Every structure is written in structure tokens, then in C-alpha cells.
């Protein structure tokens, strides 16, 4: 893992002796006492960090060295700050005096000191103490607390809020809310950094205050926001930016903080001492009478309202355009949060949100902004009695159809759906209606979004969408290939006659096949479960079978099909399940020619066909004609071994009067004759060209099914016995054409002899091959009238002593 040189250094650090280590400590203390710290000091600090971190044992440093390291935290050299903080974090917990030393110098707080404080706060009490000290620093007047210190304080508080919000008391919330109000709403509107007036003869006395500007270059006539620009920024303007960056998180979290006793005495100095209020946006004095939380919500509302107005300006730089988009996302999220906390703001906010949606909806480059707007409509549209139809057509219609290849949008949209899944299921019927569009994300980049669809797919399965959704999942590799062709058709030239090109791309551009591809690209459900010319589409896309994106898509379908069937059995009635059985039998022959994909789909179909019939045995009688038609094709023995075996087993197991009173003798006889003909054909002739011998499991399943049917209709027993005796006679001559393995042949013959022996006693055969329910699902361990429960309890007490 490490290079030879690195391993040598680590070994030296671990094996250093205590006398040598003490000498090294003394030399380092002398180096740190110097007025100027040299490169040797930096090297020594790096070596000290290696010595402390290379061993699992905690080493204790001399108190003088610890004091020197603490003083380095406030060094103007950032490298020394980093090294001292890293060394102190490798030490045992700081003493109370050392923590007090750091906290008393909170005016010199930087990111390294903050990291050290958080790492050493081992308990909630320690963390609360750190919070109190940091907030006390926020409450200082501007002259008492340098701005660079406050800039580091807010990120530290945000970190604490993320990991342990309960450490903040009600007084902490009040204080921070007041300070955020000041920074957000009353920052200076004059550029910082001593901006020049622009004249030729300028000097310190001739420099005039220059107001901040908007992104389009005009002079700002309102309060400062993150979208204001200038040649320099003042300290309170920087705090405005920092405050806005943590505002959403703060609003989301502070209501969950437990109420505590007042621990900090603060005077209300909000909006005093140098606050600059523009005449354009000055608010009424009534807002000053609101409690701190409500005032913060009001100021956050005004701030976001101004950001929305500023976003309509034409930015002079491309980077500023991206900044506008990012700020719009944050502003809409903050407004949504504010309206969740105070429903009275919904009616004031909706006009701005509605106008913003109308302005941005025609430009899909603002998709990342439109998703928070959709969240706002979802949360508050019903209360405001607003029609959300256009929003959902955009989110579920245009976004997946035109931006399916955008990984960022795919992640954000699917996350949006997952977070609001219950709301969509209850109040947005368009959600399931647009499932063909949503599946385009899965078809395009299956590995990246399959986890999302594992959560989303059950919500898309309804009685109305079940059949079409099954067809769509099976055709998802075709959709993947079609999306690739759609993109290629826009960037590749039309191939010349006689030239080399993709045949599938030519077919995509061919008007005679356009309908097939348009069905694959449909955006909404309801236009039909599938298409008649599906085999033609598979032929056209044959060359896409080995495209990486198509192969990846095909690999995810079996997992999703398991989820689909697990869900559909909970929402579908027997009529729908019967239809799904027909779809499985039909589609087992109509799949894109990817051998591993076809094999996996057959395995999934087999598993869930068995489960459906076990839950509803009457399905076998309902679909007996189609099941017998499938089982009566000898070619299915070779091409669909897994599915064919399960179909035969289901027919033999559930075609019984005990499962369905409609099961007649004629139906049992018809099924028997069909299976008998197939078994005779595959055991009396060789395998077709290009195929292998049928699996022993297929033959033994056919034999068992015939024996079960004969046990229910005794007139059929002689026919089964005759076949089984012939089978034993034929195999005595040695190898046979339909079984190449001698061990498999022995197993088949053994099964035949067992069945033949059972059928000699029809009453016994019926009880063994078609047992009654109380035999197949015994409850002896629960029956108090028998000795089994007592024996089990005695064995349990012996094997599991208390």
C-alpha cells in the first residue's frame, strides 16, 4: 500500500525511543521560541505529526510545547495553522485551561481552530459550551470581532447544527436569528476596497464612495444581496453572503431544537449601529415588533423576493448567469421552507413563483431551477387553489423526453420523486401516466439510476398501468437503443448509398419504420400496451444487442422485474394476473436477442408464474388453453427450458378438483395427452440440429406431471405405466440420443421406476402425488391436542438452557 520510502519513515516514527523523543521535543520548543519560524520548524512539525499519528498509542507532549502549538493556531502563516491543528488533534483531549485559552481567543478563530474545537468536543456539554462561546463572539460589536473571525464562525455553527442541533438552546436561536436579520437585510450598499471614482487625478482624498451595482451594470437601488457586484466588498457584505448560504439549513433545523433555559443575556442591537436602509425597500416599523424567528422569516422572504427580481436582469458574464440560476434555486427553496412554517406567506409568495415559472418554463436550461418551483407547487398548490397541470407536464413530460441524457437532472428529478413519493401517489395522477417518459432515465444510464427505480417502481405499478408497464420493462433495451439512435441522428450525416453506416440508424430515419420508434419514444401511457410489429423492431435493432449502454440496461431488467411482480400480486385481481400470465407466455418468445438477457427473463418469469399460481391456483384452469398450447410445443423444451419446466409443473400440480371445482376429467385428459405427446417426441428422437439434449429436469417434470394427472383420472394410469415400462426397456440397451450423460439417464430411469411403483396402487399414488392441504401445510406444532408441541418444548428446554 505504501512505497518503500514511506514504510521506512513510518517504521522509524513507530520505533523512536523515549530519550530521543524528549530531545526532539526540546529542540522543537526552541525552534518555536524564535521570532521567525524557518523551514526547519515546518519540517519538525511535520515529523512530530508523523510520530503521533503512526502509532496507536497516545503520546503526551510537554506542557510548554502544547502551549506553543496552541499559539500557532493564530499564526498568520496558514501552513503553521494546519500543522499545529493536525498535531493537537492527535493528542489526548485538551485540558479545561487549554480549551478556555482557545475560546477566549475566539476573535482569532479560523478554520483550523474550529476543526480542533469540534474534534475535542466529546460530549454534548462540551459542544454546548463551544456554541455559547461562538455565539458570544457573534454578539460582539463590529469593532470587537474581526469579520474574518465571524466568517469562520458561521460555518462552524452550521456544522454543529448539522450533527447535533439539540446543542443549541432557545437563546442561541434568538441571538443567531437576530444577527442573520442584520446581515441579510442591512448590509452596506457601498462598494468596499476603496473603489476609485474613475477620474485621472485621483488620490486618497478624491476617492468617493461608489454604490454597488447589479449584474447588468446598473447602479443598485435596493439593499445588498449575493447578486450585487462591485470591485470590492465590505465586511458586512461578506457576512451577507455567508448568511444567505446557511439560511436554508438554519430555517429547516431551528424549529427542531429543544427549548432550553436562557443562558446568554443579549441586548437587541439589531438594525442599529451603521445599518443602511434604502428608501426603495424600507419596511414598516411593524416588522421590528415581531419575535426573532418571525422577523427572520420576513427578512428571508424579502431577500428572496429581491433575488427573483434581480435574476430577471441580463448578466454581463456567463459565470454570473450561472450564479443567477444557483441563487434562484436557493431562493425558491428558502421561500418553500418559509411558507411551510408560516402558511400566511403562501398567498404573498405564489404570485412571484407563478411569474417565475412562466418566465423560465420555456427555457429548459433552467431545469435545475424549475424543480424547486415544482416542489413549491406540490407543497402549496392545493392551499392556494392553483392549477398545477402545466408544472407536471413540464416535469414529467419535457424533462425526461428532452433531457434524459443530463446526469445532473436525472439525479435531481429522481431524488425529487423519491422524497415526495407519497404526495405523488395520492394527489398527482399524472405521475403514473408519464411512466414511459420516466423510464427513459433508466434506459439511458441504468447503473446510475437503478437504485432510484428500485424505490420508485412499486409506486408505478397500478391495475391500470400493470400490463403496459410489464411490456415497457421488457422493451427497455430497445428503448435504450432508440435513445442512442435519436441522439446520433441529430449529429451524424445521412449515409450515402453504398456507404457504410449503421443499419439501425437508417431504419430510424426511414419513414416506414418511424411508427415503431415513435412508440418506443412515447411520453405517456395509454396509447397501447405494445405493438404488433415488435419482432420487426427487434430485427432492426439486432446490431444494438452488444452496445454497452444497451447491455447495461438489459442487466438491470431482471432485478426490476422481480420488484414489479412482487408488487403486482398485491394490487392485481385474478383477472389481471391471468392477463399477465398470457403476457409472460407471449413475450418469452419476443425479446431483443441478447442471449443472457433472454435466459434471465425466462428465469424471472418461471419464478413468478409459480408464485402467482400458488397464490391463486384457479389461474391454471382459467388459462389452461394457453398454458397447454405453450406446453404442447416441443421446441420450447430446448429454447425455454426454465419457463417450460415450470409451466409443466404448474399444470401437473394445480390442475385438480381440490384446487378448482371447474377442473373436469376432459380437461385433465386433454392436458395429459398434450404432455404425453411432447414427452414421447423428445424421448423417441434425437435433438434438433443446433440444440443440446433436453435437461433431465424437463423430462422428470413431464413424467411427474403425467403421473399426477393419472392419479386424478385412473383411466390414464395404464398409459403412463406403459410409457414408463418402455422407458426402462429402452434404456437397458445403453446410451440414448436424447440424453448424453449416463448419470442423468440413471436419475431419469430411477424417477420413472418410483412413479411406476406408486401407480400400481392408485389410492396410494393419489395421496402421495396429490396430497390434501392438511398434509402439505401441517400445523402439528400448533395443535394442542397432540404430543408434538410438548415434545418440541422439551427439546427446546434441553438444547437452549436458560
From TrEMBL:
Residues 1-282 form the AP-5 complex subunit zeta-1 N-terminal TPR domain. GO terms for cellular component: AP-5 adaptor complex. InterPro entries: AP5Z1, AP5Z1_ARM, TPR_AP5Z1_C, TPR_AP5Z1_N. Residues 323-440 form the AP-5 complex subunit zeta-1 ARM repeats domain. Signal peptide: none annotated. It comes from the Eukaryota. Residues 452-798 form the AP-5 complex subunit zeta-1 C-terminal TPR domain. This is Adaptor related protein complex 5 subunit zeta 1. It comes from Amphiprion percula (Orange clownfish).
Amino acid at each position: 500500500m505504501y512505497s518503500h520510502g514511506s514504510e521506512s519513515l513510518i517504521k522509524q516514527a513507530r520505533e523512536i525511543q523515549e530519550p530521543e523523543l524528549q530531545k526532539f521535543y526540546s529542540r522543537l520548543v526552541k525552534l518555536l521560541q524564535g521570532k521567525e519560524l524557518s523551514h526547519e520548524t515546518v519540517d519538525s512539525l511535520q515529523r512530530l505529526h508523523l510520530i503521533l499519528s503512526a502509532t496507536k498509542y497516545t503520546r503526551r507532549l510537554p506542557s510548554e510545547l502544547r502551549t506553543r502549538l496552541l499559539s500557532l493556531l493564530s499564526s498568520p502563516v496558514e501552513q503553521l495553522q494546519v500543522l499545529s491543528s493536525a498535531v493537537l488533534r492527535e493528542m489526548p483531549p485538551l485540558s479545561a485551561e487549554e480549551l478556555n485559552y482557545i475560546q477566549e481567543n475566539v476573535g482569532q478563530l479560523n478554520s483550523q481552530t474550529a476543526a480542533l474545537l469540534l474534534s475535542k468536543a466529546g460530549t454534548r456539554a462540551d459542544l454546548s459550551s463551544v456554541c455559547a462561546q461562538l455565539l458570544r463572539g457573534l454578539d460582539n460589536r463590529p469593532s470587537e470581532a474581526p469579520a474574518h473571525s465571524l466568517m469562520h464562525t458561521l460555518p462552524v455553527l452550521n456544522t454543529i447544527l448539522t450533527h447535533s442541533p439539540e446543542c443549541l438552546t432557545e437563546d442561541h436561536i434568538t441571538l443567531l436569528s437576530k444577527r442573520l436579520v442584520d446581515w441579510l437585510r442591512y448590509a452596506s450598499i457601498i462598494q468596499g476596497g476603496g473603489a476609485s471614482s474613475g477620474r485621472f487625478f485621483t488620490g486618497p482624498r478624491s476617492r468617493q464612495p461608489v454604490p454597488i451595482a447589479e449584474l447588468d451594470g446598473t447602479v443598485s437601488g435596493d439593499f445588498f444581496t449575493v447578486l450585487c457586484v462591485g470591485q470590492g466588498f465590505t465586511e458586512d457584505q461578506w457576512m451577507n453572503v455567508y448568511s444567505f448560504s446557511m439560511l436554508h439549513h438554519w430555517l429547516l433545523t431551528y424549529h427542531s431544537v429543544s427549548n432550553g433555559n436562557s443562558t446568554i443575556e443579549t441586548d437587541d442591537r439589531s438594525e442599529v449601529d451603521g445599518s443602511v436602509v434604502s428608501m426603495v425597500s424600507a419596511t414598516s416599523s411593524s416588522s421590528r415588533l415581531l419575535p426573532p424567528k418571525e422577523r427572520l422569516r420576513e427578512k428571508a422572504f424579502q431577500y428572496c423576493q429581491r433575488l427573483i427580481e434581480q435574476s430577471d436582469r441580463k448578466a454581463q458574464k456567463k459565470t454570473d448567469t450561472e450564479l443567477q440560476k444557483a441563487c434562484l434555486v436557493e431562493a425558491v427553496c428558502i421561500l418553500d421552507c418559509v411558507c411551510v412554517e408560516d402558511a400566511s406567506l403562501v398567498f404573498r409568495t405564489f404570485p412571484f413563483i407563478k411569474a417565475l415559472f412562466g418566465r423560465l418554463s420555456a427555457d429548459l436550461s433552467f431545469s435545475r431551477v424549475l424543480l424547486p418551483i415544482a416542489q413549491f407547487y406540490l407543497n402549496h398548490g392545493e392551499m392556494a387553489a392553483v392549477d398545477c397541470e402545466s408544472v407536471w407536464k413540464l416535469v414529467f413530460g419535457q424533462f425526461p423526453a428532452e433531457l434524459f441524457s443530463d446526469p445532473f437532472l436525472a439525479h435531481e428529478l429522481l431524488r425529487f420523486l423519491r422524497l415526495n413519493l407519497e404526495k405523488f401517489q395520492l394527489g398527482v395522477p399524472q405521475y403514473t401516466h408519464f411512466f414511459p417518459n420516466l423510464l427513459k432515465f433508466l434506459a439511458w444510464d441504468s447503473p446510475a439510476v437503478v437504485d432510484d427505480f428500485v424505490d420508485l417502481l412499486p409506486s408505478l405499478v397500478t391495475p391500470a398501468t400493470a400490463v403496459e408497464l410489464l411490456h415497457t420493462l421488457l422493451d427497455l433495451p430497445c428503448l435504450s437503443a432508440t435513445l442512442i439512435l435519436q441522439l446520433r441522428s441529430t449529429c451524424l450525416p445521412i449515409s450515402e448509398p453504398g456507404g457504410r453506416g449503421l443499419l439501425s440508424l437508417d431504419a430510424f430515419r426511414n419513414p416506414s419504420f418511424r411508427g415503431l420508434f415513435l412508440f418506443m419514444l412515447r411520453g405517456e401511457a395509454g396509447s397501447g400496451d405494445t405493438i404488433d410489429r415488435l419482432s420487426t423492431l427487434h430485427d432492426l435493432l439486432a446490431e444494438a444487442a452488444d452496445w454497452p449502454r444497451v447491455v447495461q440496461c438489459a442487466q438491470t431488467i431482471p432485478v426490476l422485474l422481480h420488484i414489479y411482480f412482487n408488487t403486482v400480486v398485491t394490487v392485481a385481481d385474478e383477472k389481471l394476473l391471468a392477463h399477465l400470465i398470457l403476457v409472460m407466455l407471449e413475450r418469452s418468445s419476443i425479446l431483443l436477442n441478447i442471449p443472457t438477457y433472454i435466459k434471465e427473463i425466462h428465469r424471472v418469469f418461471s419464478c413468478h408464474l409459480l408464485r402467482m399460481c400458488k397464490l391463486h391456483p384457479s389461474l391454471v384452469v382459467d388459462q389452461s388453453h394457453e398454458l397447454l398450447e405453450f406446453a404442447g410445443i416441443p421446441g420450447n423444451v430446448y429454447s425455454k427450458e426454465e419457463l417450460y419446466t415450470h409451466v409443466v409443473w404448474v399444470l401437473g400440480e394445480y390442475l385438480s378438483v381440490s384446487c378448482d371445482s371447474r377442473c373436469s376429467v376432459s380437461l385433465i385428459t386433454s392436458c395429459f395427452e398434450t404432455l404425453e405427446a411432447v414427452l414421447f417426441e423428445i424421448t423417441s428422437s434425437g435433438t434438433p440440429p443446433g440444440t443440446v439434449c433436453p435437461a433431465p429436469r424437463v423430462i422428470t417434470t413431464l413424467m411427474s406431471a403425467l403421473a399426477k394427472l393419472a392419479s386424478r383420472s385412473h383411466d390414464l394410469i395404464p398409459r403412463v405405466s406403459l410409457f414408463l415400462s418402455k422407458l426402462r426397456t429402452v434404456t437397458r440397451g445403453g446410451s440414448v440420443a436424447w440424453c448424453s450423460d449416463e448419470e442423468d439417464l440413471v436419475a431419469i430411469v430411477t424417477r420413472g421406476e418410483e412413479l411406476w411403483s406408486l401407480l400400481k396402487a392408485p389410492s396410494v399414488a393419489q395421496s402421495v402425488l396429490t396430497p390434501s392441504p392438511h398434509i402439505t401445510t401441517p400445523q402439528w406444532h400448533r395443535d394442542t391436542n397432540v404430543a408434538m408441541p410438548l415434545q418440541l418444548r422439551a427439546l427446546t428446554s434441553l438444547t437452549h438452557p436458560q
